[in-house]
Amino acid sequence: MSRSGKASKYPPDARPPREITDAFRHRHPDDERYLRQALETGLTGTSSIVERYERKLAERYGMRHVLAVSSGAAAVTVALDGITWEPGDEIIVPPTCPICTVLPILSRGLKPVFCDVRPHNFGLDPDDLARVISPRTRGIIEVPMWGYPSRADELREIARAHGLPLILDLAHCHMTRLNGRWLAEYGDIACFSTHEGKFMSTGEGGFVMTNDADRDAKMRAYTRFGNLDGIHFGLNYKLGGLQAAVGLARLEALDRHVETRARNRQYILERLQNPHVRELPICEGGVVNGYALLLQVVRGDGRRFVEHLHTHGVPSDIKKYDNRPLYEYPLLAAYQRDCKNSAALLRSLTTVPLHSDLSLEDLQHIISTVNAYEC
Ligand SMILES: *Cc1c(COP(=O)(O)O)cnc(C)c1O
């Protein structure tokens, strides 16, 4: 992230020792080889390179159907076509997710209903869920953040008991695991983003997974104008061939990135010596993907911690996106609900980058900055 042109946040005589970037550059030696193949075989969303990319993703996840789409927002929009509803019906969603998950709900004429999360986890709280489920509820969206798994196994059982489909927005949780399986396996439909800022990048892009052939057929039709049959509504949400080519190359590097991020996380955690700061608890049976390290302030205001890190050149998504419960935003104020765990959780956290461009000196700088924080 270039800071040129921006006013420095440091006094002129106090140069920061180090500025850590959260902008990981996703390059792969095979990018160009795959791009050349795309140029030869076709660039549309129905070309063979896109099919290959979908097949590779399906193999990696052991899922029956993968649909490549043009963005993470497209993935959520399209997932809503994999379930059944009428305009005005309700979709349950946590207020701790990015607004990117909720705007697609509004775009379909559906009503988002906010449900609180569990204490210290981004998963929906079963007690609050029981309060918000209504006769007009048509689906539940769970949005685990920054790679930390939620109790999607329990949520799936609750959703089943109510006859409701569970959509997982896993834009942050590509490769996150729970009970030895992919977190994605616990959803009726799982959505992903491959935007440049996410775990794996195709520039812009996303994909949707399901094991249900009917849901897949409905979603696929929606991404191509309802198969142009003039009966079913749809728009164009297909992923292009160039992006699929880059995706194919980068899938090959995925395991290596997961390992490096796990190593970086371990390195930081082993040296964490601040009694006021801990890693966000990981739910039992869960394995994080290393998208970011979530540090939680156990006493006091987490935003002070975020400011401390920022001042010392350690970036935080919480600072960048000002994560607050979504009903605090004007666009969503009509859906206000008091979600105490959500507000407390977002206020207690910071993200720390773990990507594979970080040097040993970067990691050491992160550790000393975290350890120097005083409550
Ligand atoms: C980034 C993100 C999206 C949107 O993805 P785009 O590819 O930017 O459209 C949706 N949901 C979540 C949880 C995200 O983090």
Give the low-pLDDT segments. 1-6
CATH domain class of the largest domain: Alpha Beta
The CATH topology of the largest domain:
Aspartate Aminotransferase, domain 2
> Are any ligands bound, and if so which?
pyridoxal-5'-phosphate
Radius of gyration: 21 Å
Straight-line N-to-C gap: 29 Å
Backbone structural class: alpha/beta
Strand segment count: 13
Mean of all residue-level pLDDT scores:
95
- Give the name of the CATH superfamily of the largest domain: Type I PLP-dependent aspartate aminotransferase-like (Major domain)
Describe the strand arrangement of the main beta sheet, using strand numbers: 1-9-8-5-4-2-3
Output the helix-strand order. Answer: HHEHEHEHEHEEEEEHHHEEEHHHEH
- The domain count comes to 2
Largest sheet: 7 strands, mixed
Helix content: 25-40%
Percent range for β-strand residues: 5-15%
Shape: globular
